[in-house]
């Protein structure tokens, strides 16, 4: 993290963004929608102020999917990379996917959401 911003991009590089710090919290979400969208055990996000998000290149490539009554998921329409999640009930915040950040996120992940649907196949600490 440099100059008070997070920077990231999609897999194909068509979408590049920056988001102003601070990160309000970071989380791993184990809800089944995040599992399906990410194709993984969880979606991992940094929650930031929506006003600080700037799509520096490729805004026309960002597509949004309404995954629930108030949840919106944004992704690159070329490569399919998941980029953002936001709730219509919290319009001032947006969650940025940790896996798209460059350099990688080096802050703490404070929350695990929907741990009741955390996959049994995940390795357990030992």
Describe the structure in your own words.
- The chain has 126 residues and is mainly beta.
- The protein has one domain: Beta Complex (Metal Binding Protein, Guanine Nucleotide Exchange Factor, Chain A), CATH 2.170.150.70.
- Helices cover 6% and strands 41% of the residues.
- The chain has one helix and ten strands; from the N terminus they run βββαβββββββ.
- It has one helix at residues 32-38, and strands at 5-9, 16-20, 25-29, 43-49, 53-57, 62-66, 71-76, 82-87, 93-97, 111-113.
- The chain has a seven-stranded mixed beta sheet. It has a three-stranded antiparallel beta sheet with strand order 1-2-5, with no helix packed on it.
Poorly predicted regions are: none
How many independent structural domains?
A: 1
Q: Specify the helix fraction band.
A: under 10%
| Order of strands across the main sheet | 6-7-8-9-4-3-10
Q: Helix and strand succession? A: EEEHEEEEEEE
* Assigned CATH class: Mainly Beta
Supply the number of helical segments. 1
- Averaging pLDDT over every residue, what do you get? 94
Q: What's the total number of strands?
A: 10
Structural class: mainly beta
Tell me, what's the shape? globular
Hey, roughly how much beta strand do the residues contain?
35-45%
Major sheet attributes: 7 strands, mixed
End-to-end CA span: 31 Å
């Amino acid at each position: 993290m440099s100059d008070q911003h997070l920077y990231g991009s999609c897999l194909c590089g068509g979408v590049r963004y920056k988001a102003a710090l601070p990160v309000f919290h970071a989380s791993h979400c184990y809800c089944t929608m995040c599992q399906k969208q990410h194709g993984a055990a969880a979606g991992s996000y940094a929650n930031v102020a929506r006003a600080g998000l700037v799509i520096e290149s490729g805004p026309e490539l960002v597509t949004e999917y309404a995954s629930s009554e108030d949840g919106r998921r944004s992704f690159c329409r070329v490569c399919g990379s998941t980029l953002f999640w936001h709730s219509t009930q919290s319009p001032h915040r947006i969650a940025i996917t940790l896996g798209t950040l460059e350099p990688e996120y080096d802050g703490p992940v404070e929350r695990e959401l929907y741990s009741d649907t955390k996959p049994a196949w995940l390795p357990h600490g030992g």
